[in-house]
Amino acid sequence: MSAAPILQIDGMCVAFDHPRGRIRAVDDISFSLLPGERLGLAGESGSGKSTLALSILRMIKPPGHMEAGFVRFLGSSVGDLNEEGIRALRLAGIALVPQGSMNSLNPVARIGRQIADAFVDHGLRFGDDERERRIADLLAQVGLPANVARMYPHELSGGMKQRACIAIAICLRPKVIIADEPTSALDVVVQRQVMATLARVQRELGAAVILIGHDMGLMAQFVDRLAIMYAGRLVEVAPIAEIISRPHHPYTRALIGALPSLHQRGALSGIPGLAPSLHDLPSGCAFHPRCSLAVERCHGERPALRETDGVAVACHLA
Amino acid sequence: MRAVLRYLRRNPSLALGVALLMAIALFVVVGSLVVDLEDARPLSAPTLQPPSQDYPFGTDRQGRDLLAVMVVGTPLTLRIGFIAGFIGVGLGAVLAFVAAYYRGIADTVIRGIADIGLTVPGLLVLILIAVSIKGTLTVNQMAIVVASLAWLYPTRTIRAQVLSLRERGYVEMARLSGMSGPSIIFVELLPNLLPYLGATLVNAVAAAILASIGLEVLGLGPIDTPTLGMTLYWVNFNAAMINGWWWWWLSPTVIILTVFLGLFFLTVGLDEIANPRLRKSA
Amino acid sequence: MQLAYIARRFGVFLLIVWLAASLNFFLPRLSCQDPVRAKLLQQASLGGYVATGIEDMTREYEHRFGLDKPLWRQYVTYLSDMGRLDFNYSIANYPRTVRDMIADALPWTIGLLGTTTLLSFGIGSMLGAMLAWPRAPRWMIWLMPPLWALHAIPFFLLGLILTYLFAFQIPLLPIFGGYSAGAAPGFSWHFVGDVLSHALLPALSIVLVATGGWALGMRGMMVTTMGEDYVVFAEAKGLKPSTIFLRYCLRNAILPQVTALALALGQILSGAVLVEVIFGYPGIGTLLFQAIRENDHFVIQGIVFIVIVALGLATLILDIVYPWLDPRISYRRT
After folding, report:
1. pTM to 2 decimal places
2. Which residues of chain B lie closer than 8 angstroms to C277, CB-CB?
3. What's the whole-number mean pLDDT along residues C164-178?
4. A174, C70, C221, C316 — which has fewest CB within 10 A?
């Protein structure tokens, strides 16, 4: 594994034009992803995580648009690609496992056909037997029996649907997999199955994964590095062990602190207040109204993301 | 008033619909002041005159002054539509609420009848009813005949709406706090459905007018009353097209066109109020 | 599973047929009208002869038509007659049977309705789908307002307007009948061309109005479908726009459209009846019109029955085809 990042995001800003004004769902986000790495992207609902994922694939539609920033995949700029190029990149280079797998499969097409679609539209033509074999292999990789290929989505359970989506996501052997809340709607037993599947296929492919979610426990079990988002901004990026044991940003600290532990007893602590509406962001640091350590400076000046020793934090007091 | 005008500007369909319908209303009101309504009777004018100073809309083969016919006939046609439409939606709403709120056997029966009734082409059943009644119909009788089928579609659509509303939180709250069925219907459900009921009403009126004109064109209407549909019947009967009496069919056609377009745009406009998702942002 | 579904739908169909027959039977009798006597009196007054022996004639005809038996007996006979499609004789055109008259007129109507419905549904849906698609050619937007305005008016009204335009102002097309008087029916090119030129205006009246409605509906459905999660995923898969349009959007949006078609059949037929009357097109509509004028109750009843049955059958077929289009349906209890 070389040290050159496979995916590089630089200063990305995604804005939406709303009658009440322009809002920034993604505000100056920068990070890099190394080959084979597992990066977690955590934050509350509405913090801009899914928007970021869509924006990497240039799938933001009006009234939203990417205001600024660069996305580099394998060194070349994604923004420079034409229609054909970006289409070829999707799934083959960077694959998205979307949020809401319940509805991510075409209800009137069989699973096998939905995989075959990807093959055909990416220029891969197989004979009937070859195609069936490949589809069966893919399904086996995600732990699904071969006859699933002939089934319709409504015949599958939630976990099976999610794994089918993973099968589709890996069918062209992508270098980067972005999994957007793959287990949100599933119960814990199925969650474990799906995450195990994801881990296994990622290892077999040697692909890098961006796991988007808000379940810190899940992150702790799966990712190598974790990035925390708040109100569209990055507040901390650090190796997972570091974040769990020594969170630097007050928000991260509160998130970790809110996790129940088997060993402790007592009341659970939450984070007071609500996540700010993007229409009405606080000045300076977006978190300061809910932060117990906030000082004067936090109110006026927005903290930049500064990196020391592999840990990046956006806090005046870090 | 200001707010109303401002809204109309944002909702051009509603504005257009209202404008067209008001044009018709104006025509009727001004017309009835200016024209001698007796001229709508046969033999009040020389026959088959093209439009002129004396007879701006011309005259027909039986010597009716077509301008008078339009002024008299339009409100008659509209009346049938309104009566039938109101009865249809009124009855339909009651049945829909009962079916959707109380469910059970009432729902199955009402829904079954409505579904089957809708498969059948309404005009044909109306024809059957009309020919079974002895003698020719008066305007009011026609309204009742049309109303007999006018409740089918409103029942179905209102029922669907009530079904979806029924599951909302505030209804559950009302039920749990011990409100009786009818009061929930009136206090909680009905106010939220008013815009939808309005749109349904306009639709029902349009459909009723269409049904009544259809019956009249076929000759099943009130034969000596100069409604719009009957005028078209006479146009057809006398092969006015082939004989080149173009003015005879032009005025009823234009008026019917205006009425339908007006009702259509009104429906679209009301739909936008009823369904907030359709509202264009300012 | 599937068999139960079909059986249930077929049961509903039979129910409709039975209801239609019963409606036909009881409604006229409710008003205590006597069609035979009425017709005889009418003919008597036309002929100008004295009304002696009318009672005897009435009784004889009633016996012929089976109108003198007890009610329940008439009902049973009636139901079995309906089952055999025996609609009795035409009162006005005796001794022609109602069945023959309908059999003559029905193909014309089926031809007109069948082609116009298929055309307007097909073209309208495709148009509507393309209008919703952001990559569609820009000039299509201009089609919207006229289609929109047109679909609000009844078919026959457009028929009148077209008649005026095309037969008077620009005398291109015939405005009356199914074929020119004196033309010999047969399968010659000349006759077919003649028939088509006569059918053009009635067909246009229906197609121009109906297309707009289907287009609007389809456009709405497409917009909803395009916002679905599976379309987002399809795009993320890097599928070609044409694939997404056809297999992911259109294929899903067409389902409610087909349901709407099944529901609209009755309305389309009612509209077509009036169009036929305006154009004198020799289909069921004109037959019905004449029967109304001549007070020929048996013809009217026969037509109403056949039409209800035909529509019930069409709905049944659409109901059976639907699970094939939407795989979710056959496994659900509707």
Report:
1. 0.82
2. 217-218, 236
3. 68
4. C70
